[in-house]
Specification:
About 65% of the residues lie in helices and about 10% in strands. By secondary structure, the chain is mainly α. The protein has 2 domains: about 200 residues, Up-down Bundle (Alpha-lytic protease prodomain-like), CATH 1.20.1510.10; about 110 residues, Alpha-Beta Plaits. It starts with a helix and ends in a 7-residue tail after the last helix. InterPro entries: Cation_efflux, Cation_efflux_CTD, Cation_efflux_CTD_sf, Cation_efflux_TM, Cation_efflux_TMD_sf, CDF_Transporter.
């Protein structure tokens, strides 16, 4: 899997470099500040691709004494660095656009600029869709994030092509810096989103989609001996997850029986996360009389209360650190 990730990101890096050369060629032909904005963003694609290569290399390294959870967290540094560079590029684009508003300049050879930017947009569209699709299959937040960034580049380039066509037929050169400002704002927004994603990952912010996926798996394969699940916490390390939780089991189970129940939970969730490895740290809680009314173990020899109804596991009762009763 690591070799495939590395191959995918190398393709992205090479294509992004060639497209950057093409966009700067278009800028030198036309002297369009909007095309310059597009070219500056493409430089970020190249640098981000290089970061992603190093990130995937580190992620593939085995765990060691200093990194007991592996090196997967580096992916969040990678998308954070990419987000920061995109944000800086957006600021530079806005600064350059303001300069063009104040000064005077002449656009040249707009037709060739349209064809060049149009061709790079088509190639970027194919590359972005490929990266997003493959990143979700693996899954890899580095590859997916890179693909989403390139798709943003595609949308801004499409707007640029339309603007260049309008300028070519109307002569409205003032539209060039206006489009550049719009692109700069779009790029700033994307940079903020990547920075937000990076910070949330580094701060171990709860991913509710992962929580919901785990809960759904446990609900579908629930055993009567699993009386409740609570105090669930999820941390992501690259493609892998570390999950802590408490499971309430009948207090009279032998140690080997309790161990088998916990291993069954781990096996089920790993099967549900086919492209990732899920490591569980499960704390087994003994049941209490208060648990009897929702315990589904009908042949329990020590039941104190009648069964009153099943409690479906949800975020509301799985995340807090308390038994459901």
């Amino acid at each position: 899997m690591l070799r495939k990730e590395f191959r995918i990101i190398l393709i992205s890096l090479l294509v992004s470099f060639l497209l950057t050369v093409a966009k700067f060629t278009a800028y030198f032909l036309t002297h369009s500040v909007a095309i310059l904005s597009d070219a500056l963003e493409s430089i970020i694609n190249v640098v981000a691709g290089a970061f992603a290569c190093y990130s995937i290399y580190l992620t593939g390294k085995p765990r060691d004494a200093n990194h007991p959870y592996g090196h997967g967290k580096v992916e969040f540094f990678s998308i954070g660095a990419e987000g920061a560079m995109i944000f800086i590029a957006g600021c530079l684009i806005l600064f350059k656009a303001v300069q063009y508003f104040i000064g005077t300049y002449q656009l040249e050879d707009v037709t060739r600029g349209i064809w060049l930017i149009g061709a790079t947009t088509l190639v970027n569209l194919l590359l972005g869709q490929y990266l997003v699709r493959e990143g979700r299959k693996l899954p890899s937040i580095t590859i997916t994030g890179n693909g989403q960034h390139i798709m943003t580049d595609v949308y801004s380039s499409l707007g640029l092509v339309v603007a260049l066509i309008v300028i070519h037929y109307t002569g409205w050169t003032w539209l060039d810096p206006v489009v550049s400002v719009a692109m700069g704002i779009l790029i700033l927004r994307k940079g903020y989103q990547l920075l937000r994603r990076s910070i949330s990952g580094l701060m171990d912010e709860t991913d509710m989609q992962v929580i919901d996926q785990v809960i759904n798996i446990l609900n579908q394969h629930r055993r009567p001996t699993w009386i409740d699940v609570h105090n669930m916490r999820v941390q992501q390390y690259g493609n892998n997850y570390h999950i802590d939780c408490h499971i309430t089991l009948p207090y009279y189970l032998e140690l080997s029986q309790a161990h088998d129940e916990l291993k069954a939970v781990e096996k089920l969730v790993n099967q549900g996360f086919a492209n990732s490895e899920v490591e569980f740290f499960i704390h087994a809680d003994p049941c209490l009389p208060v648990c009897c009314h929702y315990c589904q173990l009908m042949e329990c020899p020590v039941r104190k209360e009648k069964f009153s109804g099943k409690i479906t596991w949800t975020r509301e009762n799985v995340l807090p650190n308390r038994k459901h009763g």
